[in-house]
């Protein structure tokens, strides 16, 4: 049955435009919901003053049948026309999880509240129920196999380095392109001390976090530049020379040190 579903899925996909629903980030290569949402938030904050105000969190999600190959594609098609109605709001989707973001200026929340109401009406008209139950994320549990214990068994440095890469580095660099740019100098030094302590245990030189961040910014940026259907592709515009990219105009330090500004700077340094 799944083989037949894959044939139907491939047939439907071949008939769809590559630019279909650019704000649906699930089931698509080279898409990052967190990066897009963070850039949108920092761009909004860059337009005005940061009053350090925050609202309560409301999680809206709907369900899709599990175990069916066609479910992701059919659900994306079904929710294709669920889009924002105001230029100051966006609706970002990751599978059946939906986020409504809006720029609220001068305490005028009308456009944002109207967008929420629009989403609620759209779900009612399309027979979708909003699930407002909070999602519980279990706390992270550190690995139970200390590298020091492994070193006592006189394991080769290559094995110790593989353990570090799988259990520690994978955590340190998780989504590093999103958060590392805006870390303070003290934060970076504290994280780097973790790397240096593991170097003494593994007796090998390990890549520092700044180098990893720089390389991943370049790799991710090149993928976005090559994908004209990516919702953030427009941020990478070439100058007249055709060799360097235009830097983003920023007012706040947070936006200046965020991923897209740093990625453009990294690409220009390569050129």
Automatic annotation (TrEMBL):
UniProt xrefs under Pfam families: RVT_1
Alphabetized InterPro entries for the sequence: DNA/RNA_pol_sf, RT_dom
Domain of life, source organism: Eukaryota
Span of domain Reverse transcriptase: 1-184
Name of protein: Reverse transcriptase domain-containing protein
Upper lineage: Eukaryota, Metazoa, Chordata, Craniata, Vertebrata
């Amino acid at each position: 049955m799944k083989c037949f579903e894959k044939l139907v899925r491939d047939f439907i996909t071949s008939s769809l435009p590559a630019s279909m629903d650019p704000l649906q980030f699930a089931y698509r290569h080279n898409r990052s919901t967190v990066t897009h949402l963070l850039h949108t938030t920092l761009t909004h904050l860059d337009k005005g003053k940061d009053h350090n105000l925050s609202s309560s969190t409301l999680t809206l999600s709907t369900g899709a049948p599990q175990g069916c190959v066609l479910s992701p594609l059919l659900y994306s098609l079904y929710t294709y026309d669920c889009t924002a109605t105001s230029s100051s709001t966006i609706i970002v989707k990751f599978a059946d999880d939906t986020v409504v973001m809006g720029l609220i200026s001068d305490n005028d929340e009308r456009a944002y509240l109207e967008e929420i109401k629009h989403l609620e009406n759209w779900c009612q008209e399309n027979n979708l129920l909003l699930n407002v139950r909070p999602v519980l994320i279990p706390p992270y549990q550190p690995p139970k196999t200390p590298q020091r214990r492994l070193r006592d068994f006189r394991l080769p440095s290559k094995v110790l380095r593989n353990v570090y890469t799988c259990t520690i580095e994978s955590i340190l660099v998780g989504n590093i392109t999103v958060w590392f740019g805006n870390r303070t100098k003290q934060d970076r030094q504290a994280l780097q001390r973790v790397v240096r302590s593991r170097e003494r245990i593994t007796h090998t030189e390990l890549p520092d976090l700044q180098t990893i961040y720089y390389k991943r910014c370049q790799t991710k940026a090149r993928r976005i530049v090559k994908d004209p259907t990516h919702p953030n592709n427009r941020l990478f515009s070439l100058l007249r020379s055709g060799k360097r990219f235009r830097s983003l105009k920023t007012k706040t330090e947070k936006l200046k040190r965020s991923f897209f500004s740093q990625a453009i700077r990294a690409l220009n340094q390569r050129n």
